[in-house]
Amino acid sequence: MIVRKRILILDDEPSTRLLLRHYFSKGYNLTIHENGLKELNRLEKSKHADLTITNLKTPKMDGFDFIDEICSKDRFRGAQIIVTSGLAEIEVRKRIDRNCANVQKLGQISTLKERV
């Protein structure tokens, strides 16, 4: 039995969710949400994703807070996170908790699949 990697996509833009679903529909188990708070509550009760792709502007809990919560829990140490955002990388790094070294910023979605 082949174990497929789990990818969590967190984005409030329907077009971005659709694009990422298309890119990763084959070969990965996808979980796609637009609300960071709901997803964080779900993650507390289940296995975490091998990779999280998140936008920084999401409702109820923005991507910065979501990342800080993930990185503050031992259970999620080592989680791989890719940020999709129009913000400059330096600005993103300034706001993300230093305990989370596995966060990368991605400027163009077209190069995302190469990083997974």
From TrEMBL:
Keywords: Phosphoprotein. GO terms for biological process: phosphorelay signal transduction system. InterPro entries: Bact_response_regulator, CheY-like_superfamily, Sig_transdc_resp-reg_receiver. This is Response regulatory domain-containing protein. Signal peptide: none annotated. It comes from Roseivirga echinicomitans. The keyword Phosphoprotein applies. Residues 6-116 form the Response regulatory domain. SUPFAM superfamilies: CheY-like. The keyword Phosphoprotein applies.
